[in-house]
Specification:
Helices cover 33% and strands 20% of the residues. Strand 1 and strand 2 form a beta hairpin. It is globular.
Length: 227
């Protein structure tokens, strides 16, 4: 079944009533084109977010953790077999530590909840290059989630964080620049989207000060390239 532009916009309007979970909505991952104007579903959603950027940004509440953001058991090295593939990759990247463009990965699966009642995920990876802290939203190579989902999820996690306390817990300067970025595999779905004509997706990334970083798997580990 196909949807019209009006129907896609109505879905967006409904989901934007709760900006902190907007990135989770199914419509963000719809692929294909609307039946009336032949525009990409994803570009219509991106256009909607651009027009409602203040509501999206301003509607994500901050959660302050009473305990530290830095989890003592996150030492890396051993990778438990029961971890999801994405989490296994995160630990592998953490173990490798240093990368071009994003500096040192200093944590993985960083918790955002303060209590069990809080609605919040975990930051996949955090890295620091001496000036900037990167909130990285990792997607495994076969992920079918859209780049728009990656961008909005990363930004939502950054806004949910108490940045002042996050920096303090990791022993970083209070004036550290913080950005939220997609962290996806080179040559896969999200990277391929960025090579297409998607002006609204790219405008959202500009508005949210976000840029993609691409992962390339090599025999001896991973390397990172800029988007």
């Amino acid at each position: 079944m196909g949807y019209t532009e009006k129907e896609i916009l109505e879905m967006c309007e409904k989901e934007m009533q709760n900006p902190s979970t907007f990135y989770q909505t199914e419509v963000i991952n719809y692929r294909g084109r609307v039946t009336d104007t032949d525009e990409l579903y994803n570009e219509i959603v991106a256009k909607y977010v651009c027009k409602h950027i203040k509501k999206f940004v301003g509607g994500i509440p901050k959660i302050t953790r009473k305990t530290t953001y830095k989890t003592a058991s996150h030492a890396g090295e051993r990778i438990p077999s029961d971890l999801r593939k994405e989490e296994q990759i995160a630990v592998e990247l953490f173990n490798q530590k240093h990368f071009d463009f994003i500096g040192d990965i200093i944590d993985y699966q960083t918790p955002l909840k303060n209590t069990s009642k809080d609605v919040a995920g975990k930051i996949d990876l955090i890295s620091y290059d001496g000036e900037t802290l990167y909130i990285l939203e990792l997607k495994k190579p076969d992920s079918t989630e859209t780049m728009l989902r990656c961008v909005l999820e990363a930004y939502t996690y950054m806004k949910t964080s108490d940045i002042e306390k996050l920096l303090l817990d990791f022993g970083l300067p209070a004036d550290t620049n913080v950005v939220a970025c997609p962290f996806v595999f080179f040559g896969k779905d999200q990277h391929n989207e960025m090579k297409e004509d998607r002006p609204y997706l790219k405008n959202i990334m500009h508005l949210l000060n976000s840029k993609p970083y691409y992962i390339i798997k090599e025999n001896n580990g991973y390397k990172i390239v800029e988007g």
